[in-house]
């Protein structure tokens, strides 16, 4: 990990003031549209405890805590991790009333309001004030169209609903009414392909959950090159092949050759002149980078989707980079752990590509025993790191703390920062530096 990656990311604009406590970086969860393309990210913020006291002291403490939370949202890695998509923030009442809310760019975030909190005159007045400044609001996890919901409705652009928590008859009438009122509907906790199809049928516009990362025989991903060709290439790369062997395998796959030639001629990967032969491309790129590129190519959608809009590519790349950066920070990690970290992350979702069980898919990849144990059973240091990444994807801070205790001296805050750094790497396309992000894969 570079020194730059270890330092807290810099802040932009009005986020200049350094927080009194270490920055609490948010966790990132995808929000996709009906075509399965990324359209935003839920940013889970970890609330900072505020000591109670007299009203002036409590207000100052609340403002300080709000500034601490919002400072993380101005960090350069967080901005990059959004890759141009909006961030959805669940804001508490103290955060909403804090003066620090003005630090948020209205065009970059949606502010989520819980209908379970008291919806009184003060809250409505605050929404009116912020609405006039072009802030956008979302009702979060609406379960019952009650009086509180009715009061909030005029000031929001979108409503989040967990379809499993609302009676089917009510849900159908509710979604139809809200769509006719011009509201954006976001389905929560969509974890299976069946739930996704059902929510689409109910006219939901956006979907939050990890259904796209679940294996299913009916939803195996199309890939840009023949599946078996990619697997054969990965097996060859794992055996330390000669340039001649690698050249012969690649020549069987014209699409792979095209990708490799583009990669070899990009910026600093170039050898000082335009690469014209496959052998030169292999030498310029190196087998390690070819292997990573091939691994991530497994996840690329066959529809020529941009990497920034493909949730499965983003998730796999973020996990892989997080595992790699995290393993480098482990105090007792040996070379085997560090070398296997990227593979563990990138193949932890591979069942979503092939539509088979994880066990069968990993058998086909012939991965090392400790990598298989980490993926299948979350065993060892790599398994614990992967568990930490999954906790961050869910915004499960208790699970993250438990994983952090097993990964000491890595703290929960450091793990969250590494995850945002990894997400920024995954969200960066068409870059040439060695530590830059992914290149676009286009036919």
From TrEMBL:
Pfam families: EAL (PF00563), HDOD (PF08668)
Annotated HDOD domain residues: 223-413
InterPro entries: dGMP_Pdiesterase_EAL/HD-GYP, EAL_dom, EAL_sf, HDOD, RNase_Y/CdgJ
Protein name: Diguanylate phosphodiesterase
PANTHER family in the cross-refs: CYCLIC DI-GMP PHOSPHODIESTERASE CDGJ, PTHR33525
Signal peptide: none
Membrane-spanning parts: none
SUPFAM superfamilies the UniProt entry points to: EAL domain-like, HD-domain/PDEase-like
